[in-house]
Amino acid sequence: MKQLTSAQIRQMYLDFFKSKGHDVMKSAPLVPKDDPTLLWINSGVATMKKYFDGSVVPKNHRITSSQKSIRTNDIENVGHTARHHTLFEMLGNFSIGDYFKEEAITWAWELLTSPDWFAIEPEKLYITVYPKDTEAKRVWHEVVGVASDHIYEAEDNFWDIGEGPSGPDSEIFYDRGQEFSDLAEDDPENYPGGENERYLEIWNIVFSEFNHKPDGTYEPLPHKNIDTGMGLERVVSVFQHARTNFETDLFLPIIEKTAELSAGKKYGQDKEADVSFKVIADHARAVTFAIGDGALPSNEGRGYVIRRLIRRAVMHGQKLGIKGSFLYQLVPVVGKIMEAAYPEVLQEADYIEKVIKLEEERFQVTLKDGMNLLDDLIAKVKAEQGTVLPGKPAFKLYDTYGFPLELTEEYAADAGLTVAKAEFDQEMAEQKERARNARSNAKSMGVQNALLTDIKTESKYVGYEQLTANGVLKDIIVADQLVDQVTTGKAQVIFDQTPFYAEMGGQVADQGVIEDKAGQVVAKVVDVQHAPNGQNMHTLEVLQPMQVETSYRLVVDQTFHDKVKKNHTATHLLDQALRDVLGEHTHQAGSLVEPTYLRFDFTNLGAVTAEDLAKVEAIVNDKIWANLKVETIVTDLESAKKMGAIALFDDKYGEKVRVVKAGDYSMEFCGGNHVANTNEIGLFKIVSESGVGAGVRRIEAVTSREAFEFLANRDRLLQETAAELKIVQVKDVPAKVKQVQANLKELEQQKQALEAKFASQQAQSVFEKVQTINGKTLIAGQVQVAGMNQLRQLADQWKAKQLSDVLVLATATAEGKVNLITAVCPDQVKAGLKAGDLIKAIAPLVGGGGGGRPDMAQAGGKKPEGIQAALSQAAKWLETK
C-alpha cells in the first residue's frame, strides 16, 4: 500500500475514474438547491437524484465526484467514536444506465489493488454481498479472483430508502490487523461486516436495479444504475495507519492549532481532553464549509445546526481552558488542509472568520445567562431538598443555551445532584419528531419514467435569434402515453425546433400560440420545460387537432418575452451592484424573472441598510443610463472562467457555455434572454428587501413601465399626504411631518405626566391600606393606570418608601385586559417569600399567567372581573407562609 496524503487519495480516485470515461463533477454546495427534502447535501448521490430518477439525462452517463456532505442525526457521538463526523467527503463513481455490476466491481478492485493506483494488498480486503445477488458474488470470485473465504453474505446488504430506486449492494472491508482487534477471536461480531474495529468498511457499491413501488413491491428499473461511496476520512485513516480518522492529515493540524490555543493541553494525553479536541476539529470543518457555502447561524433549520455546532465547540474549548472566542482562528487551518480541492475556503476565509467570531461573541453573552439559569435551578432543587435536576430545564439549557448534557451533569454533580436523563431524552425525542414533521413530505427520489428518458428526438432552440419559427411536431404525450395525434385538451409536445424558451436559471418560460399553415391558432403554449434529454417540451392547451410529422408555426408572445428580457438583464446588473456595495462574500442564492417584476435572493449576514439599498439602486440605474452594450459570447468553459465570468457553484455546464456581458461592468454565465443595450430597461426600482431564511436576503424590484407606475403611485400618495397636511409644496412634507411628530411627542409627555400624577394620587390611597397577615404586612389594590409600565413605577415608589412586606397591584386596560404586579421586600425574599410564586398563585383568577424574579413579578390576563378575587387570593396565599 502506498503512503498517500488525503489530497493525493482524493485526486487519484478522481483521476482513475476519469481514465474510465467518467466526467469529474465538482463538489456541490452543502446547501441544497431546489430540494425541500434535504436540510443539507448528505451524500454523493444526493446531487445525482435528477439523473437517477430520470428527470434529467446527463450528457455523460459516467460521473465521478468527491462530494462534501453533512449529516447531523448523531452529533452527540462526534468525538466519542473513531469515525463519527458532521462534515465528511464521499468519493463516488456513478453509472446512469451505462455500465453495471461487472465493470463497477472490477474497477473498484483495480483502483484498490493495482500498483499503478492505491496498491492495497489484496489479502487484506474482504467483500460482503447480498445473499440473493449471485451475480455480484460470481463477479467477485470468478472475474476478479477474490477467494471464497474473503466473501461474506449479509442480509442487510440492500440499499432501500422507500419509494424509488433501490437494489443490493456490496461492501469492501480492509483488515487493519490483529493489533486493532477489540473482540475475542470467537466473538460472533469478529468478522468483516460485524461490529468491530479490526475490519473497516471503506467502500460501498450499490447496484440500483429496482423501483420500490408505493405498494411495497419491486420491479426492475428501466435503466439500471451504479452508485458507490467511499468515505475519504475513513480511507485516509487506512493509508496513514491511524487508529481513528482524527489522527490523519485531515484533522491533526486543526487539533494541533487548538492545543496551541488551550491552557497547555496536548492531544493523546487525556481521554476526556481528546474528546474535546476531536469535537472542535470536526465542528470547525463543518461550520467553515457550511458558512462558505452560504448558510449562516440562526434559530431554525440549517442555521440552527451551525449555531449548535459552534456552541458545542465553544463549550469544549472551555473544557480545554480556552477563554473567549477561538473557533474562528481555525478557519485558515481548515482552508489550508482542503486547499487542493476547495481553494474557495481560503479565498473567503475573512468572511467566514467574521461570521464565526460574531456568533462566538453572542454565545458568550448567552453562556452567562445559561449559567445563571443553571445556578438558580440547582439552588431551587437544593432548597426543596431534592436530589435530581429535572430533565426539562436541562434540555432547555441544551437547546436554548448550548449546554451539552454532560456539562449540566458535571455542574449538578458538583452540587451533589443527578440529572433526570430519561426526561431529558424524552424532550430530545420530541424535538427530533417536530423537526421531522416540519420537513417537506416530498419524495426523496422520484421513480424513473422510461417514456421521457427514452425520447431522443433532436430539438433545436432558435429563440435567441427569432421569436417566430416553423417547427415539425415530432412527439406528442397525452396521459403519459406517446400518441400520433391529439384533438383537444392538455398535451406535452416536442418540435424539431422552437423559439419558445424553456424555464431555466430563474427565467420563466415563454408563452404564445401554435398556428397551422392557414394561420389558425390550434393551441396555446402554457409552459415550456426541459425534457430529460434536454429538449424544450411544450405544455399545450390544444384547441384544434394536431398530429406528428406536421409542420406548425410557433409564435412567441413578444410583449411578454421583451419584458422578461429587461428584467433578466436587470438581475445581472443587480447581482454585480450588490457585490460592489456589500462585498464579494455576497452570492446569488436564487432568482425569479417574471414579465412584471424580478426577485433576487442573495447571501448576507443581515438586512441591507436603506443607505446601501439606495447605493445599489443608483448603481443599477447608472448602468442602465450608460447605454451599455449587452453581448453574448459562446465559448468553452475554461475560456469563460479566464474571462472572469461569474458562475454558480451548483450550475452544470456543457462543452460550450454562454457568457452574457454588459459593457465592462457585468459578466456572467447565463443561458437566458437579454436586451441588446441596457438603455432598453429604462428604469430600475427596488420595491422591497427582506429575509427569506438563515443568511439569505431577497430583493424584489421592477423595471421599465412597472417601475414608472410604482413611482407614479408613490407620487400620488405623497400628493395626497400634502393635501391632508394642507401643504402647497410637496417638498415641504418632511418638515411638516417632523413638526407634527414633535407636537405629538409633547402631547404624549403631557399625557404621561397627568397619568403619572393621577396614578400617584391613587397610589396614596392604596398605600394607606396596609393589612397584617400571618405576621407580614400586605398592600393589595386595584388602580386605574395606563398599563404595566405605570404599575412598575408604583412598585418602585413602594420599594423606595418601604411601605409593606408584600405588594400586589392590578389594573384593567381599556381593551379589556388585566395587568398584575407583585413585589416582595428584600428581608422577606431572604426568608423564602417569592414574588414569582405569588403571581403564579393569583394570575389564573384573571385568566392569565406570568412570572419573574423573587423580588418582583408580573402577569397579564383577560378577565378583569377576576381582579378582586385575585387580590383576595393574595391574602390567602400569605396566610400559608
TrEMBL record:
Keywords: Aminoacyl-tRNA synthetase, ATP-binding, Coiled coil, Cytoplasm, Ligase, Metal-binding, Nucleotide-binding, Protein biosynthesis, RNA-binding, tRNA-binding, Zinc. Gene3D superfamilies: 2.40.30.130, 3.10.310.40, 3.30.54.20, 6.10.250.550, Bira Bifunctional Protein, Domain 2 (3.30.930.10), Threonyl-trna Synthetase, Chain A, domain 2 (3.30.980.10). SMART domains: tRNA_SAD (SM00863). It is found in: Cytoplasm. It is an enzyme of class 6 (ligase). GO terms for biological process: alanyl-tRNA aminoacylation. One of its GO terms (cellular component) is cytosol. Its EC number is 6.1.1.7. Residues 730-764 form a coiled coil. InterPro entries: aa-tRNA-synth_II/BPL/LPL (IPR045864), Ala-tRNA-lgiase_IIc (IPR002318), Ala-tRNA-ligase_IIc_anticod-bd (IPR018162), Ala-tRNA-synth_IIc_core (IPR018165), Ala-tRNA-synth_IIc_N (IPR018164), Ala-tRNA_ligase (IPR050058), Ala_tRNA_ligase_euk/bac (IPR023033), DHHA1_dom (IPR003156). Its main location: cytoplasm. The keyword Transmembrane helix does not apply. Its cofactor is Zn(2+). Zn(2+) binds at H568, H572, C670, H674. SUPFAM superfamilies: Class II aaRS and biotin synthetases (SSF55681), Putative anticodon-binding domain of alanyl-tRNA synthetase (AlaRS) (SSF101353), ThrRS/AlaRS common domain (SSF55186), Translation proteins (SSF50447). The keyword Coiled coil applies. GO terms for molecular function: alanine-tRNA ligase activity; aminoacyl-tRNA deacylase activity; ATP binding; catalytic activity, acting on a protein; transferase activity; tRNA binding; zinc ion binding. Binds 1 zinc ion per subunit. CDD domains: AlaRS_core. It holds the Pfam family tRNA_SAD. Residues 4-713 form the Alanyl-transfer RNA synthetases family profile domain. Catalyzes the attachment of alanine to tRNA(Ala) in a two-step reaction: alanine is first activated by ATP to form Ala-AMP and then transferred to the acceptor end of tRNA(Ala). Also edits incorrectly charged Ser-tRNA(Ala) and Gly-tRNA(Ala) via its editing domain. Belongs to the class-II aminoacyl-tRNA synthetase family. Consists of three domains; the N-terminal catalytic domain, the editing domain and the C-terminal C-Ala domain. The editing domain removes incorrectly charged amino acids, while the C-Ala domain, along with tRNA(Ala), serves as a bridge to cooperatively bring together the editing and aminoacylation centers thus stimulating deacylation of misacylated tRNAs. This is Alanine--tRNA ligase. It comes from Ligilactobacillus agilis DSM 20509.
